[in-house]
């Protein structure tokens, strides 16, 4: 039978296959053209990106040699900024600064923080780092001797001696936490020397570092505070308010040591900067800010002792539970009408109000805490109102924490209730209206039973969120035992003091609590889903 060029079958014409040589040629030719058109540019692009990364790494290594990251105690902020500015004006090196309490920076270094050098507010912590082998041998030196001052931002207070403390004509006295900050320890020693430690202790407001103490007094939320003289002095003069420079024999010398960490051992920028700090120019800057000439042969300051006890932890837990319960009850009363209006209203204001209620979800806690601190301070509208009503100032009090927590946790309570009301639909409410039920009867007998899972979810979320607050609490409440020191702040203090045993215990409690909250929410959601299935929704 002769083979046809075409095979006809099932209404389809099939052409015979081309010889394998031509088929392979056209296939590879087609692949080559696609390679030239698409793949080759991509390959060149990948090579270019890789080369760019190599160049960036080389440039980064070169720039790393021209800069250094230096951790500095908060009290040395202003002098260090000026010293760095003078140093950079005279050299091609760049110095990046980070500030915090000496205890905080010390704990960060132990946990691998990438600092090249550490300027502490004491001698003890650099010595510990030296003993731990985290520093360059023989690099530690005393760069300054700090001076303590009792300062009031209000010039009419006339703080020129210790009589303001002795007379008791003040409400809040700010000082740095003695277990974390050397200046706080010096302030406590000064009060002990004057015999005023016990009488004044109920008025103490503890800042996490000397910088926060300055903030408390600057915003007039504390009547006076023990600050570093360098914070309030420029060119030998007090910048604002009035101050009493504490005699140096009232407390142990505040000898401040600096040390080069192992990461900065071969950094030319750091080595040049450390040499500049010892120069006459830098010493003159220190004198302008009230520091004394450092004496490297002086005896070291005694170590900061950890005075935290289990009693303090229990007090922090109880205060946290009391705060969370109070805030949750208040939030349920406030959030219910807001959620009802947002769920039922068709007003053009619904969008802006919803955004305003949701704002704390994305707003940094420190921003909210800062503006609440200003608003509730003596110069703020809320502070002026509370003073006129005879309530007094709210910052650094339990009720100040309550107000701040209500603002911060509001969306966590409003949204679950709003969603529950929306999911009800209009039918139950229309039926209640047909029966001429009053608004109160409708809420109690219709809305509340059907939206009950939403209310439970809102209460759990509001309670849990208040338990875990930190930033807002720290800004508004400071660190007052049994008044504003909640669990999150207590854990923070334990970590900075390297008291990891207490920190582990409290953290484990918080983890167990968080797990319980999530488990309860899952149970509620499952019950809600089963209820919908049973009624055929």
Please summarize what this structure is.
With 537 residues, this protein is of the alpha/beta class.
Describe the 3D structure:
By secondary structure, the protein is of the alpha/beta class. It has four domains: 7-63; 66-145 and 255-288, Periplasmic binding protein-like II (D-Maltodextrin-Binding Protein, domain 2, 3-Layer(aba) Sandwich), CATH 3.40.190.10; 147-250, Periplasmic binding protein-like II (D-Maltodextrin-Binding Protein, domain 2, 3-Layer(aba) Sandwich); 310-534, MetI-like (MetI-like fold). Helices cover 58% and strands 12% of the residues. It is built from 22 helices and 14 strands. The chain has a five-stranded mixed sheet with strand order 4-3-5-14-6, sandwiched between helices. A five-stranded mixed sheet has the order 9-8-10-7-13, with helices on both faces. It has a two-stranded antiparallel sheet with strand order 1-2. β1 and β2 (12-14) form a beta hairpin. The termini are far apart.
């Amino acid at each position: 039978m002769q083979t046809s060029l075409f095979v006809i079958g099932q209404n389809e014409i099939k052409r015979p296959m081309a010889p394998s040589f031509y088929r392979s040629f056209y296939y590879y030719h087609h692949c080559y053209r696609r390679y030239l058109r698409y793949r080759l540019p991509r390959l060149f692009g990948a090579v270019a990106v890789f080369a760019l990364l190599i160049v960036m790494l080389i440039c980064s290594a070169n720039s790393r040699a021209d800069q250094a990251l230096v951790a500095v105690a908060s009290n040395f902020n202003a002098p260090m900024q000026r010293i760095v500015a003078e140093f950079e004006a005279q050299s091609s090196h760049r110095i990046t600064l980070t500030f915090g309490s000496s205890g905080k920076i010390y704990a960060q270094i132990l946990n691998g923080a990438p600092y090249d050098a550490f300027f502490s507010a004491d001698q003890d912590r650099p010595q510990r780092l030296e003993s731990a082998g985290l520093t360059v041998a023989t690099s530690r030196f005393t760069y300054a001797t700090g001076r303590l001052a009792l300062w009031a931002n209000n010039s009419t207070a006339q703080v020129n001696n210790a009589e303001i403390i002795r007379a008791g004509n003040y409400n809040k006295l700010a000082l740095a936490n003695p277990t974390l900050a050397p200046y706080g320890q010096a302030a406590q020693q000064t009060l002990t020397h004057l015999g005023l430690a016990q009488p004044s202790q109920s008025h103490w407001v503890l800042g996490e570092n000397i910088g926060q103490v300055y903030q408390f007094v600057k915003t007039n939320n504390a009547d006076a505070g023990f600050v570093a003289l360098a914070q309030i002095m420029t060119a030998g003069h007090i910048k604002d308010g009035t101050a009493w420079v504490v005699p140096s024999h009232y407390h142990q010398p505040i000898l401040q040591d600096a040390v080069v960490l192992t990461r900065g051992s071969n950094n030319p920028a750091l080595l040049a900067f450390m040499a500049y700090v010892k120069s006459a120019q830098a010493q003159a800057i220190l004198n302008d800010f009230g520091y004394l000439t450092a004496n490297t042969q002086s005896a070291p300051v005694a170590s900061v002792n950890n005075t935290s006890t289990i009693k303090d932890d229990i007090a922090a837990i109880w205060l946290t539970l009391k705060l969370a319960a109070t805030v949750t009850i208040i939030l349920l009363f406030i959030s219910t009408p807001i959620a009802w209006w947002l769920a039922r209203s068709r007003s053009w204001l619904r969008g802006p109000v919803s955004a305003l209620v949701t704002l704390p979800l994305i707003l940094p806690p420190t921003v909210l805490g800062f503006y609440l601190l200003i608003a509730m301070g003596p110069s703020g509208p809320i502070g002026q109102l509370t003073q006129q009503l005879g309530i007094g100032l709210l910052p650094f009090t339990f009720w100040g924490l309550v107000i701040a927590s209500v603002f911060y946790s509001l969306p966590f309570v409003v949204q679950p209730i709003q969603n529950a009301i929306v999911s009800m639909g209009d039918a139950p409410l229309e039926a209640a209206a047909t029966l001429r039920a009053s608004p109160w009867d409708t809420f109690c007998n219709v809305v509340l039973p059907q939206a009950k899972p939403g209310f439970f979810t809102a209460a759990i979320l509001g309670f849990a969120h208040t338990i875990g607050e930190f930033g807002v609490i720290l800004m508004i409440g400071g660190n007052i035992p049994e008044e504003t020191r909640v669990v999150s702040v207590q854990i923070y203090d334990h970590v900075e003091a390297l008291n990891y045993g207490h920190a582990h215990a409290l953290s484990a409690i918080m983890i167990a609590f968080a797990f319980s909250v999530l488990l309860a929410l899952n149970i509620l959601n499952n019950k809600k889903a089963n209820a919908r299935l049973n009624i055929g929704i």
